[in-house]
Amino acid sequence: MWRGDGRQRTSLLLCRSMQTLSEADGSAVQEIEATGAKIAAARDAIGEVIYGQEQVIDQTLVTVLAGGHALLVGVPGLAKTLLVHTMGHVLGLDDKRVQFTPDLMPADILGSEVLEESDQGHRSFRFIKGPVFCQLLMADEINRASPRTQSALLQAMQEKQVTVAGVRYELPAPFHVLATQNPLEQEGTYPLPEAQLDRFLMQIDVNYPDLESERRMLLSTTGETVAAARAAMTVEDLMAAQRLVRRVPVGEKVVNAILELVRAARPEEGASEEVERHVAWGPGPRASQSLMLAVRARALIDGRFSPSIEDVTALAAPVLRHRMALNFSARAEGVTVSGVIDRLCRNIG
Q: For the ChlI/MoxR AAA lid domain, which residue ranges apply (predicted)?
């Protein structure tokens, strides 16, 4: 996805889509145009604070528009925490942050019941909500907490509710988890289980910025004033955009490409020789659902009426790489998950 003047870019791409999609009614086109302009404004607002991470910003926006959760993986100092906080402010979301540590307990995330005694001597339990009761939860260094604590987010991420002492509590809408993970520091960390990883719509790799972006960041963040995030959307705008994503039509070729790609990544499905030889386990049906929503959201961000196969190949890696595992022989031969996905993408279409 390319950048520039967000509104001009959205209008240009929308015109091209309208020329080829005569079945689109006027009201739908107007809604896509208006929503695309708001998303472009949000992207520009985030870019005023986060430098040199355009692809990361776009993929995070795709995740939120698709109604999912994202795992941000990168070395320290790449503005992962700042990105989440900035996105919460720009999108008008109530955001909270939890620093995951080895001694963190599930109650520190979900909340707990406390015993209270009234003036009349009657005792009763009262539930005190934890930080998970927000619209955007930042799980900082999520792999530093124990598996028991990590599992506290499973129900919240999938069902948008939590159960404490047998009572269910609904979470605010919308609800998103943006977790960060450091790929280098392994001491004192716990690998995320497959069930936890599968609940993240995307794994977004955060890399170093290019020279010009780092120069701009250096000059902008060490002066007397530092750029602050500005609101560009409301919660109502975001939820309307999320509903619109699910109404974006998807052509049969794109649906077939998604199914072909996901199923080809499973060694049990009679896949290619490379997959049979190197992949220990592949993506499940949730990967297909995630990729379908992600390509719709990417098309909406670009102001297009429907996604293309290019969207599938562009989002294949962040949607699939945390849902696949290589066997020992593949790691010994230097094979990577990203390399396997790239080769699978060349065969779809």
A: 275-340
